[in-house]
Write a structure and sequence with these properties.
Blueprint (H helix, E strand, L loop, with lengths): L1 E5 L5 E5 L8 E5 L2 H16 L20 H11 L4 H14 L9 H13 L5 H21 L21 H8 L19 H8 L4 H13 L3 H5 L6 E2 L4 E4 L8 E4 L2 H8 L1
Antiparallel strand pairs: 1-2, 2-3, 4-5, 5-6
Length: 264
């Protein structure tokens, strides 16, 4: 069992008592959410009879440590990782590859996010995507190799972690940069704009087909230009997408203009 109490300094202290642990365990967290998340994660492991190696006292052998590079390699080797996640992991690999599992804690997670904002000056959506890809890798580690990684520090971050704070803005201002915000991607055609585009594309069948497909089906650009005839089922008025951004398959209904264009 575990108990959480707030200390005089405002931090939260957790006391773990379990027959699988060599002795009573005390841990301190900055917020109640962090303490509660770690408590639930550890209790779930202990309920399965699993004790993270980092919590055991070993007199002869030290805890085995993995680099993040190895974590990512094993994750990709043992899971059907979407192409989008593979590319994200390849992108962030150089900056985290040499870190070892023993260094991955809440402080590291906060520092990593701060670096992406204050040094790399990435957009919040980009930070979310990179965080998500690495967090899913660490989720697998906590399930498959809890003796290496008992908790996922990236899941302890508060909601809105990718949003730039005033302090982030002050750091960037000293470098002549500014805080990034996510730009709205909902693009609506203005009155008469569709007709002007169609007029420019007259006689350019390939470009015209691409434009009509994108406009009528809301398919992503990559889904449009990698489309194969075998994916188009005219009698069912649908397109079968098997290689989407998220690695899933989905069925796209065809409108009358799109169906006419593809039939031609």
């Amino acid at each position: 069992m575990a108990s959480i109490k707030q200390t005089a300094t405002g931090t939260y202290q957790v006391c773990f008592q379990n027959k699988l642990l060599p002795k009573r365990l005390w841990m301190t967290f900055d917020t109640f959410e962090q303490a509660d998340a770690y408590t639930k994660q550890l209790e779930a492991l202990l309920a399965q009879g699993i004790v993270p190696a980092s919590l055991l006292e070993r007199s002869k052998a030290k805890q085995e440590l993995w680099t993040v590079h190895r974590c990512i390699v094993e994750y990709q080797r043992n899971n059907p990782v979407p192409v989008s996640d593979q590319k994200l992991l390849d992108t962030l690999m150089p900056s985290v590859a040499t870190l070892v599992s023993g260094e991955l804690n809440y402080a590291w997670a906060e520092a990593w996010i701060a670096k992406m904002k204050r040094m790399d000056n990435l957009a919040p959506s980009t930070i979310h995507h990179r965080h998500g890809a690495l967090a899913r890798c660490f989720d697998w580690m906590t399930r498959a190799r809890p003796e290496i990684m008992a908790q996922n520090p990236l899941r302890l971050l508060k909601r809105g972690f990718a949003t730039y704070t005033p302090e982030d803005g002050r750091h960037l201002a000293k470098q002549g940069k500014h805080a990034k915000i996510d730009e709205e991607r909902d693009r609506r055609l203005e009155q008469g704009e569709e007709q002007r585009i169609l007029a420019v594309m007259e006689g350019r069948d390939i470009e015209l087909c691409f434009f009509v497909m994108a406009l009528e089906t809301a398919m992503r650009m990559r889904e449009c230009y990698t489309l194969d005839k075998s994916q188009v089922v005219l009698h069912q008025k649908t397109i079968q997408l098997s290689r989407t951004k998220n690695g899933d398959s989905r069925q796209v209904p065809l409108t009358t203009p799109a169906l006419a264009m593809l039939t031609d």
